[in-house]
Amino acid sequence: MLERFGIQPTQQRIDIAHMLFQRPQHLSADQVLAQVNATYGHVSKATVYNTLGLFVRHGLINEVLIEPDRTLYDSNTADHHHVYNMDTGELSDIPAGRLAIQGDLGLPEGTEVEGMEVVVRVRSRAAQSADR
């Protein structure tokens, strides 16, 4: 599979790919590191970060920036958006057809939309009331 995307397979890359593609999921680099090490044996943190970056560049996974200091890696590369629960930290998928952007986006002349990623941030009403 990796070779189809122009990636030289190594044992560590294969192990990381197997773990990521077991099911659609959203994981941090640290979660990937912990799961790979628990299942396949020792892989360094640098290898995990480098491999995740490689997989993103080659289109195997998507990078979802949740907060300035929090990135999750999404094994679902089909067009879709996300709901981020700020209380639980859970990220879930919204099918692309469920959100529609209407009207003129005011794009610079000569440009067109190549892609769009929406993250809807939610919080429970009880948590919002407690913050007030």
From TrEMBL:
One term under GO cellular component: cytoplasm
InterPro entries in the record: FUR, WH-like_DNA-bd_sf, WH_DNA-bd_sf
GO molecular function: DNA-binding transcription factor activity; transcription cis-regulatory region binding; zinc ion binding
Quaternary data: Homodimer.
Descriptive protein name: Ferric uptake regulation protein
Subcellular location: Cytoplasm
Annotated TM spans: none
One GO BP annotation of this record: negative regulation of DNA-templated transcription
The entry's keywords: Cytoplasm, DNA-binding, Iron, Metal-binding, Repressor, Transcription, Transcription regulation, Zinc
Family, as annotated: Belongs to the Fur family.
Xref: SUPFAM superfamilies: Winged helix' DNA-binding domain
